[in-house]
């Protein structure tokens, strides 16, 4: 047994083998074995560990969904993942899984592999292995299970909590009946018995335990980190007697876990909406909280490290940050906001289908302009943008302009985006997230200790510019949903569903003076029956709700502090609409007149007013004033008749507002 503890000595969890009873395959009924083979791997006795047909089917579904969604794993591959690998869905992990599967097939018989698989897989409610699951759900040994009961257990490993017969009986019954139908298709049960078996009650005899799952997601990451970084496997942890000192803040972790279960923030087509949240101390990389699912239990897919399409959350990282690092662009530089077609026929649309011709980078960020982001990426170049993504460990093989909108073949995980946004929060430097501070052996000796990993990405000036702009996005832009009165900067993202008008993924990513974080909502698989009917307003409001709850216990910082040596970003200018321009003439002597133009100026004294005189052909600019509503026209003859108008100008962007009404100055004889 090993323990997971905080730095101040609070015990979080013990890691040991629990609720597991090994059983020989000779004592498992054939109909139970058939059920698992039917639903998980019907060619189990034919392939050599890898089923090429299943892989091609999975690849096809991945291409359709534009991300890695289908597992395509045989029973042997699933066992190899359970024994040797982490639970993420990447092609690199898939390659390792295949190699491990070949190893198992060369060294063990099919029945040995199947027996080991059935004794190791997770069935929910803290139970591992089919014998423990049989006792937990039916109060009997696996040798006494009926065909419907065996089919129910066979349906659990795909999503143990979602298909729990105790918490979700209807979903469990549908899944069981699917297993039975597969068995009938394969000739494992008679067709005439299928309908009666599918009509059988679930016949469960246990009650779901009141296990407190608030720390499960975090401990799952700890176990993965111990294996990946320090080469201590899960099995070694269970028997090694290690003390693992972690960076979790129990107050923050428990608060986040509780709030992620809040049904008021779940905009789904059904009750299986998932979510993930990470909060990291961006000065060190210490992960203080991680929630990998709305009710995460050990053995579930940990959404903290699962990759999804990032949508507009990527814009500051892939486009605006890199652009501001050039000498050409500043926050108030005007960029295109015209509907247009780019190379390759790519024609993005703004989310509200409104286009202003040109906007500043500041406005494009606040309003999450899609066309502007794509246009700017096209200007700075995809290879240049990818250099910055790689500095933030956001590598991608994609080379299209859709990168600007988060349209990627693989996507990023909440943990990756949390790290990336730390580059803005941490004066331009991205820090690597970690959970384990140190590991001690049985003798109390420190055998592993974390060393900080920091990468310089942006200049301090660009990081501060982004902080100021992303603060405005939270206060009055696309991230304004919900209420949080203290310092918060961030960006939203919404990725549409591939087969209906709903959404597949919604995001909020950002930071406070204390934490960087990301919050994702979606489904384990966004299929035709599972979609989000809400926007990124939901994760944004939920993130603010979580921060409010944390603030009640820890008092978070009120405002960001500008670092020394950087310039503050002036507030944007709102140009006025002038519709009360008036003119007056007075004698100036010797048959000459002088005119005075007056109007109501904007409260912002930075606005420049350009005065124009109408003439045939091009109108003539005769002067300008700043911050006031009065202009003296040069002397002219009493016989002249001249028309004037005013145009307000934003000195930050150079953008002109709408012309005022006109006024004619003439001397009526």
Tell me what the structure shows.
This protein has 19 helices and 21 strands. The protein is elongated. The protein has 669 residues and is α+β, with helices and mostly antiparallel strands. Mean pLDDT is 90; it is low at 65-70. The longest helix is centred in the C-terminal third of the chain and has 18 residues, at 537-554. Strand 9 and strand 10 form a beta hairpin. It has a five-stranded mixed beta sheet with strand order 2-1-3-9-10. Strands 5-4-14-13-12 form a five-stranded antiparallel beta sheet. Strands 18-17-20-21 form a four-stranded antiparallel beta sheet, with no helix packed on it.
The gist of it:
One of its GO terms (cellular component) is outer membrane-bounded periplasmic space. The chain is 33% helix and 19% strand.
Which features would summarize this protein structure in a list?
single chain; 669 residues; Penicillin binding protein transpeptidase fold; Beta-lactamase; Immunoglobulin-like; 5-stranded mixed beta sheet; elongated; transmembrane helix
Q: CATH topology of the largest domain, anyone? A: Beta-lactamase
The outline comes out as elongated
Instruction: Calculate the terminal CA-CA distance, rounded to whole Å.
Output: 105 Å
Beta strands, count: 21
Figure out the total of helices.
19
Q: Quaternary state, please?
A: single chain
Low-confidence residue ranges:
65-70
Please give the CATH architecture of the largest domain: 3-Layer(aba) Sandwich
Largest sheet: 5 strands, mixed
Beta-strand residue percentage: 15-25%
Q: What is the residue-mean pLDDT, rounded to a whole number? A: 90
Cα-atom Rg, whole angstroms? 31 Å
Helix % is 25-40%
